[in-house]
Structure formats: structure tokens, C-alpha cells
Amino acid sequence: xxxxxxxxxxxxxxxxxxxxxxxxxxxxxxxxxxxxxxxxxxxxxxxxxxxxxxxxxxxxxxxxxxxxxxxxxxxxxxxxxxxxxxxxxxxxxxxxxxxxxxxxxxxxxxxxxxxxxxxxxxxxxxxxxxxxxxxxxxxxxxxxxxxxxxxxxxxxxxxxxxxxxxxxxxxxxxxxxxxxxxxxxxx
Length: 187
Fold this sequence. Notes:
Elements: H1 2-18, H2 22-25, H3 50-53, H4 69-84, H5 95-108, H6 110-118, H7 122-137, H8 143-157, H9 163-185
Helix pairs in contact: 5-6, 5-7, 7-9, 8-9
């Protein structure tokens, strides 16, 4: 009886270790691609408001940094649609992540950012500046040095920027700085 119990225990242990765990056997659903198809034929549809999309409305973020200019333009259009449904930056989910992507998009593709910016309405421009300012607000009183470095790096890397774009970049910088300063003073 003693040997039978040991054999049964060993069989049970070996049998359990060979059976894959059903939870880990499948890829998690959240691991699906979050990048918009970068082929020229692909056209992402604008994201519906968050209430209708249960957290999946921002799968396009990585597309802001795509190598394909058409994909980046489409991602900016989706950004405008998402932000139109989420007026207050601090109120919409993932606002910090979104502002980080915008900041990287601006520094990586300055002409594309500024082209999109000039085609926006003034309320849309204010929203995008507010989202950028959010990134510098976290630096507290040290924000000015971070702003200086950020915009200096953009200007130094922008070999395709025209004089008008350089002027626009300075204007954006001044307005972002004013937004950060105002947010810190009202803190």
C-alpha cells in the first residue's frame, strides 16, 4: 500500500507538470499590436469617445512615431478626435503617456509636428500646447531649464526647418512656458 501511494503521488506530480497551464498557454489579449498599419493603403478610423471604446481608444500612440509620414498625419487626426472628447488633459485616462508621445513626436519630427500644428484650429493648438506643458510641469521650478534644453535640441536637429517653422517653434515654446508657469503658480 505504501508503494502504491508513492506511485500514485509521483504519477500525479508528473502528470500535473506536463499539463500546460490554460492561462499561460494563450497569448494575452492585451498583447495585440498597438501600432496603426503603416502601409499607405491603411487608414485608421478616428477613435470613438472613451466611453464607447472601453480603454482601447489610444492604440494609435506608437503611430505618432512611425517612419511613415502618412501614418503620423493619421495619428495626429486621431489625437485631435480623442482630445475633442476629453477636454481636460488631467481628466482623461493616460494623459501623461499621451503627452510623452507628443513631446517625442515633436522632437523627432519637428516639421511634421509644426505642419499639423498650423493646420489646427486655435482651440486644438491650445490643447496640444497644454499637453506638452504637462510634460514640463512635473519638473516644478526647474521647468525652464528643461524647456530650454528641449527646444534647443529640436532647433539644432531640425535641418529641414524653414525660417517660418523656426519662428513658429519659438512661439510654441513661449506659449508652452506660459502654460507651465501658470500651472505651477496655481498649484
